[in-house]
Amino acid sequence: MNKWQRSRFQPNLPLGNNGERVTACKAHRELSKNAAKEGMVLLKNQENVLPLSKGSKVALFGKGCFDYVKGGGGSGDVTVEYIINLYDGMKILDGHVTVFEELSEFYRENVKQQYESGAVPGMTVEPEVPKALLKKACTFTDTAVITICRFSGEGWDRKSVVDTENKNLWEFEEAMTKKSGELFENGDFYLTHAEAAMVNIVKEHFSKVIVIMNVGGMVDTSWFVDDASIQSVLMAWQGGMEGGLATAELLCGIGNPSGKLADSFAKRLEDYPSTYNFHESEAYVDYTDDIYVGYRYFETIPGAADKVNYPFGFGLSYTSFNWSVTSIKEQQGMIEFLVSVTNTGDIEGKEVIQIYAGAPQGLLGKPAKSLVAFKKTRLLKPGETQLLKLEFSVEAMASYDDLGKVQRSAYVLEAGDYVFYVGTSVRQVEKVSFVYTVEQDRVTIQLSESIAPTSLKERMVSDGSFEKLPLKEANDPNACGIEKLSAEMMEGYSPAVRARESYQLWKEPFKKGIRIFDEVAEGKLTVEDFLSQMTDEEVCHLLGGQPNTGVGNTFGYGNMPEYGIPNVMTADGPAGLRIAPQCGVNTTAWPCSTLLACTWDRDIVYSVGEAGAKEVKENNIALWLAPAINIHRSPLCGRNFEYYSEDPFLTGKLAAAMVNGIQSQHIGATVKHFALNNKETNRKNSDSRVSERAAREIYLKAFEIVAKEADPWSIMTSYNIINGHRASENKELLEDILRGEWGWKGMVTTDWWTCGEHYKEVKAGNDVKMGCGYPQRLLQAKELGFISREELEICAKRILELILKID
Ligand code: BGC
Fold this sequence. Notes:
This protein has a six-stranded mixed β-sheet, sandwiched between helices. The protein is built from 22 helices and 31 strands. Helix content is 27%, strand content 19%. It has three domains: 218 residues, Rossmann fold; 137 residues, Immunoglobulin-like, CATH 2.60.40; 294 residues, TIM Barrel. A hairpin with a 2-residue loop joins strand 29 and strand 30. Helix 2 packs across helix 9. Keywords: Hydrolase.
């Protein structure tokens, strides 16, 4: 294929063998199912109620057995041909298990009616179980399977807060926030009264109760953790289009759960330190929990350990494993563990070995444990052993000193003993005798202050108290050299279709006298020389989104046919290639990112990236707006399902695998949302006020790992403000940290329709403004001297360099 052929002509050229389409092909749907099975987490399995033996009879309770939530809403949604719910999945396994049909018929009809009345999956009411059906179900079987489901999406958080002040709230976002408030009396973290009543009735009538949690993030687990009348619980997540079948297969023992939690499950929502001030203000979020996010809080802060129901890294299996450390050594700054894992049970399965480091408290204070390495075994047969090699660098254990307690603005390894824990969750670990001793405080990297807070008053330290932070003069994120457009005028506009002069078809279609972009691709012309031919107006035009072509719906980059620059399309991610339903193209819906994180398996995540990118390519799109890697700071964030974990290391390593998979197909990944977009309410104007240490060690870390290990072609800045500066206008974030410190050379896009001013974004190194740019405002800013031609060209060059990477 010739360069840019797909972008230029949108040909109908399937990628598969014998001219078959790969989009939503059988192999991809199968991969989606298998990935789902890898990430589902068995939380509880008493009396070996699971797996269901052949010939079992079950009664399916809860509207969730039909109201299957394949993933969340917004950019994380996917247009699919079908979705397999739990009932469908059980029916596919008919020979193995028999379902009590009459009860299922009741739920099918109920959910159908709720959908017909406008409800979306997961936002439905739990109906009361008819007494007569309950009775019949009891005579049919002693085994009940309850499904609880949850839905959330972008633009709204998991609590009923309608931000009436926010002019940018889309009708849909407002409606969903209201609906959520109506449906979930105590917020959707907890069971509704109707769900709790259904659970109680089932517990009273059945001796074996299995619970399936079809959810996208952290939810209440207190109602089953110690309840002996609920024997088994599978955290099945939002498993994509095949999720119901994946769940059914695991229930029936076709496959063995091997997922491990990527988040800590606390007893109550209030037990997460981020909860108390999450909804304190629509204007800001104070990250007072600092680096003590997730298990770093629960394992470190005195008294917090008791607040956990299921710890980070936890997950059961139908088999059992033994593991032992066979050797540990340190060589040239790398610590290597060899761990031997044996399947000691009766059926095949996989285990995940996790290593946590514990640094000396020193002057900075440290989390008691931080994940530094993990590896999943292959499928081990009963009795089989595998030797795993896990390694990490000593420097990875350094902490960032933002206040100059040891050395200001540097990563330091404080003097003392560094200890290590090996095991299968953050709690099920053994401390090894090997100790790495640092004799004297050691600076591992000297940096300089960037994105420091001005208005965050205090932060948590490792004994649970708070230390005061210096307050500085705050920046006004709305200060602007030219009169700002109102928020409404920046919301939801498509790019203008730029006029092109008429030309005779049999003559050169290019602008007279210029050298075209293809010459740059052929190495005959530098990007700089190519750009120097353009007028200011043309360069400004390049710096914004371009109209959709083909099945694109999130716009493109480039699009200057008179210079030979193709219009390369973008598309969402991350749950699959998102094509608008009216195009009539169905794609594969992959399991949600939280589930993928719970696989703890780089290979399967790579495969999902690779397969997803093939679908992107086949549909003539060049850049996938995935993966999304913000940290699960609070269970309340409406987009957690799109993100991986509370832990930056797990997130970074798995997202790097995803990016490598995507880019193996020469499709550009777009890692988003950079950074600190951990709340959806008023997301375009909410200031994430965070210490520089927490920003670097927790919230930027996953991006750093991905930028360094997988070199994504593109990164998307987030909507929010960071310590007074919009992420998209944040030069310290983009130029000093991302490009300067990390050495990343790709192209930065804004998120779609930010409230940032275009010229300020360009000056900060945010190369392209999406969904549309404002060329006239850029020109105005240039005329007034707020931005120079050189600054415009720096961003234009990076956009062109990105386009040059595309096939
Ligand atoms: C979302 C992004 C998405 C973009 C394009 C925004 O609203 O925040 O994640 O990629 O829209 O659909």
